């Protein structure tokens, strides 16, 4: 039975989805999308937002058929106990792998730019101890922290306004559409992967207070915000750096802030990165929570599961990760995300309609 003590409001849901999506991928997003879409990268971001909106509608149509059931119960209701449990394990594996990848990428950035002499294991350990500490608490406390952490997004937006005084060249994005539809679509695929995190809705839905109305509007507003936020940053980077420069800069957003220098403040990029550790950590917290909820909904076992999953992610992050291994790891996680985020929810919706599945144990 889901009580109000562990439930969240739609206001909190808005920020939970935002914090789950915006994280470490923000820094390299302009570079990744620009590889194919070039000056039309901002169009790719908008297109990715439209695709996410379609997926959110699919999620909503599925979940509102089972408003009081957790996603682990929904899968077993539609597919049966055996297949449902296998599917739940696939989701669990995906969340663990994604959480591990985020941890690895975050450690790499922190070590490269902030703490070059600190061992990888020490950075990873501090990140995961913090994540476990917050994740073992109930969802309402996690949501409150995410709302507070979201203020740092406003800080980033405010800081980027100062970059408008730096040289800009609108010609870098002209003529609009010159990259071609194919390259824009390829760019949208890369942008879509940077927006992952919205799949958390599948496990959050039954915890939302009064989830029978207003949820679609809330998740749509969250998607619009994230899409607009990403589009703005990508656009600023596109008109700040030439195409050749964009190809060479791995974290254009941080490099953009590096251009800011004042008499009393220098290295704005490093100052911001130190602050942005909090929003980056929220993504790890989100996937640690989802991994634990995908295999345990009991209060007592949930806490133990969080600790075990945190240790598992820590151990995976200790594996030596060269750039080549990290790229390969990211590639496999990407393939897995296609099934978990895009294909499986759509198939579950279709099957629930065909077999007229609704609330647990009901058929119509």
Concise summary:
By secondary structure, the protein is mostly helical.
Walk me through the structure:
It is a single chain. The chain has 364 residues and is mainly alpha-helical. The protein has a single domain, classed as Amino acid/polyamine transporter I, CATH 1.20.1740.10. The chain is 73% helix and 0% strand. It has 16 helices and no strands. Helix 1 crosses helix 14, helix 2 packs across helix 3 and helix 13 runs antiparallel to helix 14. It starts with 9 loop residues before the first helix and ends in a 10-residue tail after the last helix. The C terminus is likely disordered.
Which key features would you list for this structure?
16 helices, 73% helix, disordered C terminus, Amino acid/polyamine transporter I, 364 residues, mainly alpha
List the helices and strands and how they pair.
Elements: H1 10-21, H2 25-37, H3 41-63, H4 71-79, H5 81-113, H6 120-135, H7 139-149, H8 151-162, H9 181-194, H10 201-204, H11 215-240, H12 243-248, H13 252-258, H14 268-293, H15 299-318, H16 323-354
Helix pairs in contact: 1-7, 1-11, 1-14, 2-3, 2-9, 2-11, 3-9, 3-11, 3-16, 4-5, 5-6, 5-14, 5-15, 5-16, 6-14, 6-15, 13-14, 14-15
